[in-house]
Amino acid sequence: MPDLVSLGLPGDEKSWTALGFAVDNARLQVGSVSCVVDMPPSWGFDELRGDASVLGVPELVSENTAGAADPVHKVEQLLEHLAADTDAPVPAKIGNDSGTAHPNGATFVDHIVYLANDLDEAVAGLTDALGMPPRRRFRPRGPSGPEMAFYRVGEAFIEVVAAPGRSPSLIGIAFGTPDLDATVAAVRTAGGPISDPKPAVQGGRIASVWNGHIGWGIAFMEPEPR
Length: 226
Fold this sequence. Notes:
The protein has four helices and 14 strands. The protein is α/β, with parallel strands linked by helices. It has an eight-stranded mixed sheet with strand order 8-9-10-7-11-14-13-12. Strand 13 (205-208) and strand 14 form a beta hairpin. The longest helix is centred in the middle third of the chain and has 14 residues, at 71-84. The radius of gyration is 17 Å and the shape is globular.
């Protein structure tokens, strides 16, 4: 099963520090996922079974080999490429540090949200790229709500949402925390704009960051006790 191992996240270091993350040289580690900030939303997997370019999201490739090129330099190469030709995502390589504990208490990436024009096409593309079908495909908000598909990719899920007329893209992320109340308090102490916790559709509780903070969706989730 392919694992999500890297993410490119929009927003500068200051914006992520204000959410209680420990950011070092544009990088932060959350659980098994190595992230680089201040870049277009992008993803990377430890392996792929098919062509991920059809998904319309720039790809990051984790690199753990000795003597590897500096990951931030690789990200800069991706940014230069995207500025020249936004229709042709290319791989960039980033490393995978052991990470540092974050003041906000986030310990893993719960899910990322992938927006697609057509759900059937998105599921076909992801199933081919990942080499596996979705875990579930249903309407989590009830019959009148949108149909979604969910793929398990290591610690995280990909939540696929259809929005006719929209270009495919990553539109948000939810980080997991064992104590959401403490996380909300830490984010507010750091200066970040975050809502009070409320019940999450998928179970547990969730608190959302004001979308205007970086112009992208960010939330923190506390899973249901097992």
